[in-house]
């Protein structure tokens, strides 16, 4: 597989659990197959949406093994590295390499808010520890550390850092990155609500969340923009937006899993400290999802 060809729809997969709080690997296999059948272009395991913070390294290995076996080398399979220490990051790299991962998504250090020098050192150290390609994850809104142009200029020296997941929630930052780096990095939008705008402005791909419940709709929206069928893309995006807004909620994991339950692609089980919604909250979210499903506009051929 050509590691440098990273573009298109890369689902940030949720992690399915059983009612007994164990990994539901048969369901995970089915979820991956549904994504591949819909035409996604890559897969990301153990991201924020995948509840990475509450997964053990052994569980991440089980998820990765399942994905590799199901994928059969069709698309790149990336494992997220969200580590508090370099030791933890290196252990994740070693495990993923041993299980034939195709690359990594990489966050600045967790829990401690690193300054620019510390952030650069951490990310450079991880990049130097592997030959596999890396997608940096820039999400200062949720994690408090921004990958600035100054930091990225240092990281650009590492040839295996090939992509950036841009999640500042500011669509103009995509153009800032393009102006500074040209085609040095593949740029992925990491925020569902502004993905269409970002792709129109030149993003190479979309690390998507609601794709977990609506895989074909996500792929079709991307392809319509690629084919410059903008009016059709706008119409689909307007239907999709109330669902996409679930991706920017604090409880995005719970809400997207509810959407998967409604569309038959998952269950609502989450791992503590998260709890499944109940009462009015549950009713409101389910009503939104079911209303959108009922008003589905149909999909054009792409």
TrEMBL record:
<dbReference type="GO" id="GO:0005829">
    <property type="term" value="C:cytosol"/>
</dbReference>
<comment type="similarity">
    <text>Belongs to the DapA family.</text>
</comment>
<feature type="binding site">
    <location>
        <position position="207"/>
    </location>
    <ligand>
        <name>pyruvate</name>
    </ligand>
</feature>
<dbReference type="InterPro" id="IPR002220">
    <property type="entry name" value="DapA-like"/>
</dbReference>
<dbReference type="Pfam" id="PF00701">
    <property type="entry name" value="DHDPS"/>
</dbReference>
<keyword id="KW-0456">Lyase</keyword>
<feature type="active site" description="Proton donor/acceptor">
    <location>
        <position position="137"/>
    </location>
</feature>
<protein>
    <submittedName>
        <fullName>4-hydroxy-tetrahydrodipicolinate synthase</fullName>
    </submittedName>
</protein>
<dbReference type="InterPro" id="IPR013785">
    <property type="entry name" value="Aldolase_TIM"/>
</dbReference>
<dbReference type="GO" id="GO:0019262">
    <property type="term" value="P:N-acetylneuraminate catabolic process"/>
</dbReference>
<dbReference type="GO" id="GO:0008747">
    <property type="term" value="F:N-acetylneuraminate lyase activity"/>
</dbReference>
<feature type="active site" description="Schiff-base intermediate with substrate">
    <location>
        <position position="165"/>
    </location>
</feature>
